[in-house]
Specification:
This protein is mainly beta. Strand 47 and strand 48 (about 875-880) form a beta hairpin. Helix 4 (about 420-430) runs parallel beside helix 6 (about 450-475).
Length: about 950
């Protein structure tokens, strides 16, 4: 079948689904249309099997049929089915970010745990990226909203994604499916399960998928030479369910995931040089001085990022390799009056993500093939639960222990073009107009005019500095002739130092940088928790939960860097020039040479350091819920929860020594072992309040929740174009001081998320089910912000747009909807499937620094599926489409590494503070384009 006819069939599916009975909005618990109308999905969100409508917390549950209809193979597709959830990926699929109610942890720094935890079969996964692997056969997925901790092993400050795989079955069953789609997409999956002995059942399921990349790689002439962001992965999971008697159940699981892919490329979405316009707004300069330099180094900027054509440094292909395996055992024993549950697990996760790091053809920065991150995690959870006092009390007590060893080797290396790019960028200047023409900058970047322009810049500096010094001396009463001689000597020394600094910078050898820089973090976590439901009456319940968590982390780093240029620059006269404010632009140039020559503290002086540190913290958290059922079909509840997420270390040498209080930038001098504490960040804490109702009828149900979540020490990670900045965000009740700080007594929540959620589901006719969801969430920063819990550290300058603004990747309004119609075809047992789902999102900003250039307009994503199934669904043929209207949108936008004239001229948001222009190039990880295909499914 041709792509065209396949696509037309998918469009027909949407049309047929749309002409079905009027569609309600999507439920948080979508199920197959052919299920019984009164079916209520059973969840274990409270560690007790209960109907969703009886659980007094905000939880969305997505069943296996809904996942299949939506084409879900990982948690990212849950975006279509759960409006309060947003999952995205950035520089690597190992770095996925999940947000619930506008709150989550972003960025590529493995030192940060996620505010939204991921559990698979009761086992905590160290980072959200584990959920972007193939999931295999799934029973259901539960999305718990708000702080979690008294029921699950690991704390989560914003929410939790609980994935439950399908257990082995006691009757033999096998199934498989084959999928083919555009981009030469192949996916094979299968499962076989059944009994092997009395009380013993086994299951084996696996998935293999392969696909061409969504981006074309093009050479300097525009010819296609390859692709990136492809897929090549497989997943295997084996299970054993052992039930020797009614009291004992043992479930053993082993799984293995392998990925060998090219990921992740990014496209430029902003490359102009913007100038402030009178009355507001901006105009565009004739050229961007940064792109002019890059043009001389072979780079081109496509006019339309959604042409998905990328040009990267030859030989620096994006590589993403992953190996993730684990073993777990869950033992349940019923003593009669109580039930004991033990979950023991070990996991080993290793990903290697390397390649071009500047996202263009110029050879500026790259990560070498020795770069990797690895988590080795052992966890043990014990729970004992039962009832007492004539079933008036359902009690649960438990303990949790986790030991995690994180190793990161992050080798960032300068390419052959870096030195010339850095020197040319500095000489171009950061004022309204470039110091050179576009042609001169291109010649500078290529090396044809680099030396001549440095010589000319040195001469110009000499004249300007001499005049300034002479005028200053004359003003002090020094005779004009004597002032001229003194000024000439001083200016010559300063300009020569600057010229030599530019020459050293431009000549940094290719391959300079990290040779083998290792970061290690050992984390040990133990907790005791209890969760108890008191049945005050047969309709009124009081739930009380309490947890104590103790977390300790040991950090060490063994840095190995060969940047001898930095050591020479730091020992020259440049630091003295850079810190002499009277020298004006000359001081700024000296600071720029030091910053770019010692990028991220990269220097041979790092090799002598022995960085070691330890933090330890203990914290109580808990919950209280009052729930009431005035009638059998209606549940009302109100709750308070206190959440917690551990602190840790910023695993990035770029921030070593940067405390937020530096009088002199840390990069101006060699670092010491005492700087290790600057990499710490504190625990994140939240107070959450919620009221809600759940109403359930045989043919329809509705859930409504209103919430307010107040975050203190919110862990924000942002990339400022040079390095990843991690800061604890807090608010101040009083006005900030001149140093942008406040008294500790005035410090309050830095981020507050509040809003309402609505979930509906209905079965208006036999074999027809509609569902929908609506979320309004305002995740807003306080109007005055600081970067520490005591108010003594000012907000990082890169985050100046945060005060009073909505958090990144936090749309205020999201609506989801789905409809499934499975009419019978005659009396032969055949049935059809017509399915459509959609997600409509309001505007939001995709960059954690909230630069206006990173804003994403509202959009809608629609998926559809149409098919025919045999009796009892023994076989099926389905045509499907994802993002069927080919909506273009950005997952995450970021400041292209080093590609602006200065941090002070990065965004139009700085115009109000007097910035003369803004020329930061902005790159973005684009969302997937339209995909479509056919799936054949069979079982016996």
């Amino acid at each position: 079948m041709t792509d065209k006819s396949l696509w037309l069939t998918s469009v027909g599916a949407v049309a047929l689904a749309m002409t079905a009975p009027a569609m309600a909005q999507q439920s948080a618990a979508p199920q197959a249309a052919e299920e019984e109308p009164g079916a209520d999905i059973i969840v274990t969100a409270t560690r007790r099997a209960s109907p969703l409508s009886d659980v007094p917390i905000a939880v969305s549950a997505v069943g296996a049929q809904a996942m299949q209809n939506s084409g879900a193979s990982d948690i990212r597709t849950l975006n279509q089915l759960a409006p309060s959830l947003l999952v995205s990926s950035t520089g690597s699929e190992a770095n996925a970010s999940a947000r619930i109610r506008g709150i989550g942890t972003v960025g590529d720094n493995p030192g940060l745990e996620s505010s939204v935890a991921v559990f698979i079969d009761g086992v905590y996964r160290s980072r959200t990226g584990a959920g972007l692997n193939e999931l295999g056969e799934i029973e259901r997925v539960e999305v718990l909203r708000g702080p979690q901790g008294t029921l699950f092993g690991r704390n989560a400050s914003a929410g939790l994604i609980n994935i439950i795989s399908k257990a082995p079955e006691k009757t033999f069953h096998a199934k498989g499916e084959i999928t083919y789609g555009n981009y030469d997409y192949w996916r094979l999956s299968g499962r076989v399960t059944g009994p092997v002995a009395e009380g013993v059942a086994l299951a084996l399921d696996g998935v293999w998928s392969k696909r061409d990349g969504f981006y074309k790689l093009v050479d300097a002439s525009g010819a296609t030479i390859g692709d990136t962001n492809d897929r090549d992965r497989y997943f295997l999971r084996g299970q054993a369910l052992i039930e020797p008697n009614d009291a004992l159940s043992i479930r053993l699981i082993g799984d293995y995931t392998n990925r060998d892919e090219s990921c992740c490329g990014a496209a430029y979405i902003e490359a102009s040089e913007r100038r402030p316009a009178a009355g507001g707004g901006y105009t565009t300069a004739p050229f961007n001085r940064i792109t002019a330099i890059l043009a001389g180094q072979g780079s081109t900027i496509p006019a339309d990022p959604y042409d998905r054509e990328l040009s990267i440094t030859p030989g620096r292909d994006y590589v993403s390799k992953l190996r993730d395996w684990g073993l777990s055992g869950e033992v349940n024993y019923d003593f009669g009056g109580a039930k004991l549950t033990s979950i023991t697990a070990y996991r080993d996760y290793k990903s290697r993500d390397y390649g071009d790091y500047d996202y263009n053809r110029a050879d500026l920065l790259y990560r070498d093939p020795n770069t990797y991150r690895q988590f080795k995690t052992f966890t043990q959870e014990l729970r004992l639960q039962g009832s007492a006092f004539g079933d008036m009390l359902d009690w649960l007590v438990g303990g949790y222990y986790a030991n995690e060893k994180l190793t990161l080797q992050d080798n960032i290396v300068f390419g052959a073009d870096y030195g010339r790019f850095a020197a040319c960028r500095l000489m171009a200047g950061s004022s309204l107009n470039s110091n050179f023409t576009a042609q001169q900058l291109a010649a500078c970047g290529s090396g044809l005019a680099t030396s001549a322009l440095i010589t000319g810049t040195q001469a110009q500096l000499n004249g300007g500095i001499a005049t300034a010094i002479s005028n200053s001396l004359i003003a002090q009463g020094v005779p004009r002739m004597q002032a001229a001689i003194i000024a000439g000597n001083q200016a010559s020394a300063i300009s020569t130092g600057l010229g030599n600094g530019l020459r050293a910078l431009s000549a940094i050898p290719a391959g300079t940088g990290d040779v083998a820089s290792l970061y290690r973090q050992k984390s040990e976590n133990w907790a005791l928790f209890t969760h108890n439901i008191i049945h005050v009456t047969n309709r009124l319940d009081l739930t009380l939960g309490l947890r104590y968590t103790h977390e300790s982390k040991r950090f060490s780093a063994d840095l190995n860097n060969n940047n001898a240029t930095c050591a020479a620059l730091q020992s020259s006269a440049l630091p003295g020039i850079a810190t002499n404010a009277a020298l004006g632009s000359a001081a700024a140039l000296a600071g720029g040479i030091l910053t770019l020559g010692c990028l991220g503290n990269g220097s041979t002086t790092l090799n002598a350091l022995d960085l070691n540190d330890k933090i330890s913290d203990g914290e109580f958290s808990g919950t209280a819920v009052l729930s009431w059922k005035p009638i059998d079909d209606l549940l009302l509840y109100g709750s308070y929860s206190k959440g917690y997420k551990a602190g840790g270390y910023n695993l990035d040498r770029f921030q070593l020594g940067s405390t937020g209080l530096n009088a002199v930038p840390a990069v101006f001098a060699p670092r010491t072992n005492a700087d290790v504490t600057s990499l710490r960040f504190a625990a994140e804490k939240v107070d959450a309040f919620e009221v809600g109702l759940k109403y359930s009828q045989p043919k329809w149900s509705a859930n409504i929740a209103a919430f307010r979540q107040e975050f203190k020490n919110f862990q924000l990670n942002t990339f400022n174009g040079t390095s990843f900045v991690v800061q604890n965000i807090n608010g101040c009740d009083s006005a900030l001081s001149a140093t942008r700080t406040c008294d500790s007594g005035d410090v309050g929540p830095g981020l507050i998320s509040q809003g309402i959620e609505l979930e509906l589901t209905a079965t208006p006719a036999r074999n027809f089910r509609v569902s929908g969801g609506f979320t309004y969430a305002s995740a807003k920063f306080a109007n005055r912000l600081v970067g520490s819990s005591d108010g003594s550290v000012p907000l990082d300058p890169a985050l100046f747009l945060l005060p009073g603004s909505i958090n990144s990747n936090a749309p205020k309004v999201v609506t989801t909807a789905s409809a499934a119609w499975t009419p019978e075809i005659g009396s032969s047992g055949l049935s059809a499937l017509f399915y459509v789902d959609g997600r409509m999102t309001s505007d939001y900003n995709t960059g954690s620094d909230l630069f206006p250039e990173k804003a994403q307009d509202g959009y809608a994503i629609v998926n559809a599926r149409v098919g025919i199934r045999g009796p009892n669904q023994r076989w099926a043929v389905e045509f499907w489409g994802q993002n069927i209207f080919n909506q273009d949108y950005t997952q995450v936008a970021f400041s292209s590494p080093l590609q602006s004239s200065s941090p002070a001229t990065s965004t139009t948001g700085q115009f109000a503070a007097g910035a003369p222009m803004a020329n930061q190039l902005i790159s973005a990880y684009l969302a997937e384009p339209r995909t479509y295909g056919i799936t054949l499914r069979g079982s016996f």
